[in-house]
Amino acid sequence: MILFLAGLFSGVLGGMGIGGGVLLIPVLTFFTELSQQQIQGINLMYFIPSAAVAVIIHRKNGNLEVKKIKTVVSAAVLASIFGAVIALSLPSGTLKRLFAAFLLAMGIYELIKGFKIKRI
Amino acid sequence: MAKIITEKELFYVNSKKSVLSGIIIGFVNGIFGSGGGTVCVYMLEKNGIEPHKSHASAVLIILCVSIVSAAIYFFKAHVDFKSIALASSGGIIGGAAGAFLLNKISDKWLHIIFGAVMILTAWRMFL
Question: Which of B:30-59 have CB within 8 Å of A?
Fold first, then answer.
């Protein structure tokens, strides 16, 4: 049940493009006994169907810039292989702390971004 | 009427900076299994793509990236099918809701609350 609810909530944020997985991962770290790698793997796999649905809707709304992102996509796919291999070679505790540091940086960034927005 | 391509558009079609952005996005998403989307939105916005379009395009970029890294995690990290199914079914419903909301909701407080929650969570996770 916690997995379903965590997925539901993260999906709403993810569909809006503000990193649902960034919340799903800590929730699963607190409430399950899974390793950091397994949790990150769940997040990646969980993301695929929800993102596919979101992409279809964004396409209908005309919000996709396919031509402009071709190069970014190719480079990103290759780099992700490298990132995943590193993640899988680290101990779970180390990866968890690295993730926490990343989360902190992202949180600060979100706060700054929020305060910069003028309209309420 | 011929379409005028701006410098920023050209830049995103093919350039070193574009490749570099891709490398950072992919690496982050690969090592942390998430977060590439936020980095991606930041980079697209910085290069002249409107916020709503950046968000939508970021979902597409991260979708491609996630398919590849998910395969690697799946074979190496022994991920349990039931967990994926549960989280995914929630994710499908939530993802659709989020995409519909994107064009309707103003996001100042969304970012502030989200950021604060992330900082608290990071602290708790570090302990």
Answer: 30-38, 40-44, 49, 52-59
The domain segmentation of chain B, as residue ranges, is 1-79, 83-127
What predicted TM-score, i.e. pTM, was given to this entire model? 0.83
Closest CA to B40 of A114, B28, B32, A13: B28
Q: Is A108 exposed, middle or buried (0-12, 13-18, 19+ CB in 10 A)?
A: middle
Nearest CA in chain B to A1: B86
Task: Give B94-113 pLDDT, tens digit per residue.
Answer: 877 877 776 676 668 778 88
Tokens of A68: 């402009």
- Selected for mutation to probe chain B from A46, A112, A115 (highest B CB count within 10 Å) is A46
**What ipTM score was computed for the predicted complex, to two decimals?**
0.85
Q: Which of A24, A53, A117 sits opposite B96 (nearest CB)?
A: A53
Domain of residue A53, residue span: 2-116
Number of domain units in chain A: 1
Question: pLDDT (tens digit, 9 = 90+) per residue, A101-112?
Answer: 999 999 999 899
DSSP A55-89: HHHHHHTT---TGGGHHHHHHHHHHHHHHHHHHHH
